Each structure stands twice: as C-alpha cells, then as structure tokens.
Amino acid sequence: MNELSLYILDLVQNSIEAGATIVKIEIIEDLVNDKFSISVKDNGKGIPKDVITKVTDPFYTTRKTRKVGLGLALASQLAKDCNGKFSVDSSGKGTEVKIELQNSHIDRPPLGNIIDTLLTLIATAPQVDFVYIHKTDKGVFAFDTKKLKDILGEDVPLNLPSVLEFIKRELSDGLSNLFGGANIND
Amino acid sequence: MIKSIQELEQIRKKALEELEFRKQQGEGIRVVVGMATCGIAAGARPVMLKFVEEIQKRNLQNVTVVQTGCIGLCKYEPIVEVYEPNKEKVTYVKMTPEKVSRVVAEHIVNGKPVYEYTIGYEEAKEANK
C-alpha cells in the first residue's frame, strides 16, 4: 500500500469488524521531533491476551477464508521500515493501534487521500461514530460524525449521497485550512 | 459553521422525503464491496466511492452500497457483488472506477449484468490460456 490513508482504512475496518461503535483516528505531524504518528482507537470487543502477541505475524489470522492475515503485519513492517514504533494495546476496553514513523524517512509513504478514506468508512459503516483529529505544527482539525448525527436525527443515515457530499466538503474545507489553503487532493 | 448547520438542516428535510419514497418502493439493489486488506490494497476504495458517486449522480433511490470483509478470492480483488431482489447474485472481479460506470449504467439501471467483468468470464478466460 502506497498511502498511509490506506493503512488507516485497513486498520479501521478491523475496528468495525470488532463491533466498535466509536472509532477515533488521530494523526500527529510533529516536524519539531521529526515524527508522523497515527493512532486508531476503538471500543470494539478487543483482542484476547494470548492472541495479541501473534497479530503482527502474517501467518496468523482469526478469519476462516484464508490462512494469512496481513493488515497488522503490514502496519508493523511499515514502522520497522521507517525507523518507527508500532504497538497494539487492548488491555482496557477496545483496542488502540499506534504507528509512529520518522517523518523525514525516505520510505515513509505520503498520507494520501485521507478524505476518501473517511468517506469510504462513513459510507459503509454509517452506524459508527468516527472522530478524526489531525494535528500539525500549524494547528488542529477535528471532525466528529456524532455532531452531524445530532442535527440529522435518527431517521437520516450518514451514507445518503447528499449527506456524503456535504461531509466531503466539510472535510476538504477543514483540511485545506489546516494546510494553509492548499488543496490536499492534488 | 452556522451556515453549514443550516445547510445540513435542509439536507435533512430533503432526505426524509427521499427516504419515504424509498420505503414505498420496497426492497432495492445491494452493492457489496470487499474491503479487507487484499481489497484495499488492490484498489477497493476508489471503486466503492465511484459507486456512491454514480448513484448520487443518477439519483438512484433504491440502491445501497455496503462493505464486506475478505471474500476469499484475493487474486480477483477488488470484488463487487450485486444483489437484486429475486435474482441470482452477480460477482464482478478486478474492478476499477471505469468499470463501475458501465456496471451502474447497464446492470443497476437497465438490469443487464456486464458479463465481461464477472468472475465466470474471468475464470473461463484463465482456463483457456
């Protein structure tokens, strides 16, 4: 995968499959300390203790359709390649996966189209509350689907085309503000 | 932000009318996109968003797009399954956003599956190699 936003999409799919109702995605671009951190935290069913040591092994999976499980294995390999750290914490309620990369490392993939990742998630799992927080040295962008749901009410799901279109605009406006007016899709 | 809240209220009103219309139409078409690691790596995200975009563009009220995990045929990803009421499911393989436009136009709107994109066609092609 050549975009960090695809790794994020993959990690959050795990959260959805674990029955999460709230997923918090946090990105911190810390130029001062040369770090790019990603955290995906959910309130899903969690990972049993005896399994957590095996999750980064590509030849371990809980699924029955095939014998390999690549998602977390790929993410931990990415951290290794980019002089970073990888951790999975499932000791409390739910699970938190953290990836910390050396920001300037030549092998660090670009963030890529994070808007498309968020839209895909909201479109396919409208029942989940997604919180997206993106911090840079210039400021913070925060987005929470719960706030939209409060206005839309229970009858109007987030995956209606007109609502998705609205969300897309909110995200592009917010993120381009964060990056000083640049169009991040380019 | 106040402006966007007002806009959202308007969207809500319109959406409620649309949903009422959808209810009257009964069971609709379901488009299922495989979104496990294999699907994502193969390009499921633009495929899924293209479906959403086309459905919006054509204002199709009775179609829903959902995701599923690994279907077990990773080499054929991105995979999309189309379920129509009272019909056999159609499985499309190696999907791209370009292929999506044709599937929406010919299959979803006009009811004729695009055979060249299905798993049956792909497997027959491989068997003849």
Please outline the major beta sheet of chain B: 4 strands, mixed
Number of domains of chain A: 1
Mean pLDDT of chain A: 89
Widest sheet of chain A: strand order?
3-4-2-1-5-6
Beta-strand residue fraction of chain B? 5-15%
CATH topology grouping of chain A: Heat Shock Protein 90
Low-confidence stretches of chain B: none
Largest interface: A-B, 36 and 35 residues
Structural class of chain B: alpha+beta
Which value, in Å, is the CA radius of gyration of chain A?
17 Å
Main sheet summary of chain A:
6 strands, mixed
The beta-strand count of chain B equals 4
Radius of gyration of chain B (Å):
17 Å
Sheet with the most strands: spatial strand order of chain B: 2-1-3-4
Helix content of chain B: 40-55%
| Ends distance of chain A | 19 Å
Short description:
The complex is a heterodimer of chains A (186) and B (129). Chain A is an alpha+beta fold and 186 residues long. Chain A has six helices and six strands.
Topology:
The complex is a heterodimer of chains A (186) and B (129).
Chain A: H1 4-17, E1 22-30, E2 35-42, H2 49-52, H3 71-81, E3 85-89, E4 95-102, H4 114-124, E5 129-136, E6 139-144, H5 145-152, H6 161-178
Chain B: H1 2-25, E1 29-34, H2 37-42, H3 44-57, E2 63-68, E3 80-83, E4 90-92, H4 97-109, H5 119-127
Parallel strand pairs in B: 1-2
Antiparallel strand pairs in B: 1-3, 3-4
Helix pairs in contact in B: 3-4
